[in-house]
């Protein structure tokens, strides 16, 4: 079985060293590169891609000198669209959670988590599913609802077919088109068509849009982000 390839971006050498030792001690994980800022990260990830050794998951700090980490998320995903990004930071601010998820990150955990939680988060985002530090995940969804008390979803769930509801739930949980296709036994193109149709019906565009809609309709619960 091939290992999950990890790339680490953090400006603290000691932390990168600790993460590398922890991750490389796992039988299914391997650190294949690291960088101390955004510019170095893009350069090294690009080199790995050319060498056909593209990382599966990038662990990214959002507080590094001379680096706009929100912008960096988009740059990394443009370079490697299938890569999964996990934010590992000291900030437990919901504004950062919203910003990074909107930019395309799949996970957000704080540096206070224990080793097992970090390793679990890496494996979860690698599968294309969201992983948000439990307290932050619950607080984020509660805050989103509080800030939109009178805003209802654009269309009632009842207007969707059973298949559309099924795909909506999987999209909202962060599954990729390929994973959804494999799970419900259809082609990737079929999933893409359903996603486009759902977006048009519900007025949704980003992964965060699908997630919030599904939460409001009771399809997802805060525990799904633990």
What does this entry look like structurally?
- This protein is of the alpha/beta class.
- It folds into 2 domains: 4-133, Response regulator (Rossmann fold, 3-Layer(aba) Sandwich), CATH 3.40.50; 152-225, Arc Repressor Mutant, subunit A (Orthogonal Bundle), CATH 1.10.10.10.
- 51% of the residues lie in helices and 13% in strands.
- It has helices at residues 13-24, 38-50, 69-79, 94-103, 115-126, 134-146, 162-172, 177-184, 188-202, 207-216, and strands spanning 4-9, 29-35, 57-60, 84-89, 107-110, 131-132.
- Strand 3, helix 3 and strand 4 form a beta-alpha-beta unit.
- Helix 2 packs parallel to helix 3 (69-79) and helix 7 packs across helix 9 (188-202).
- The chain is globular, with a radius of gyration of 18 Å.
- Residues 147-156 have low confidence and may be disordered.
Task: Please name the defining characteristics of this protein.
single chain; 226 residues; alpha/beta; Rossmann fold; Arc Repressor Mutant, subunit A; 2 domains; six-stranded parallel sheet; 13% strand; globular
Strand content: 5-15%
**Coarse structural class:** alpha/beta
Average pLDDT reading: 83
CATH architecture of the largest domain: 3-Layer(aba) Sandwich
From the alpha carbons, calculate the radius of gyration and give it in angstroms.
Answer: 18 Å
Q: What's the overall geometry?
A: globular
CATH fold-level label of the largest domain: Rossmann fold
Largest sheet: 6 strands, parallel
Task: Indicate how many domains the architecture comprises.
Answer: 2
The N- to C-terminal Cα distance equals 27 Å
Q: Write the element-wise H/E pattern from the N-terminal end onward.
A: EHEHEHEHEHEHHHHH
Question: Percent range for helical residues?
Answer: 40-55%
CATH class annotation of the largest domain: Alpha Beta
Work out the helix count.
10
| CATH superfamily heading of the largest domain | Response regulator
């Amino acid at each position: 079985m091939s290992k999950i390839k990890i790339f680490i971006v953090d400006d603290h050498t000691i932390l990168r060293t600790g993460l590398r030792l922890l991750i490389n001690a796992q039988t299914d994980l391997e650190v294949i590169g690291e960088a101390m800022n955004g510019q170095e990260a893009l350069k090294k990830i690009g080199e790995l891609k050319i060498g056909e050794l593209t990382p599966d998951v990038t662990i990214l700090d959002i507080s590094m000198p001379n680096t706009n980490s929100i912008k960096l998320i988009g740059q990394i995903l443009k370079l490697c669209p299938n890569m999964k990004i996990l934010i590992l930071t000291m900030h437990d601010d919901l504004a950062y959670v919203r910003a990074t998820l909107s930019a395309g990150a799949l996970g957000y955990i704080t540096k206070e988590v224990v080793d097992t939680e970090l390793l679990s988060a890496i494996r979860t985002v690698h599968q294309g599913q969201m992983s948000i530090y439990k307290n932050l995940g619950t607080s984020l969804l509660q805050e989103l609802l509080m800030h939109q008390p009178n805003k209802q979803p654009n269309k009632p769930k009842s207007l969707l077919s059973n298949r559309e509801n099924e795909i909506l739930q999987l999209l909202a949980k962060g599954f990729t088109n390929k994973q959804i296709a494999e799970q419900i036994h259809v082609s990737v193109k079929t999933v893409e068509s359903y996603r486009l149709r759902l977006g048009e019906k519900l007025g949704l565009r980003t992964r965060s849009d699908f997630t919030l809609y599904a939460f409001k309709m009771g399809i997802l619960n805060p525990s799904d982000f633990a």
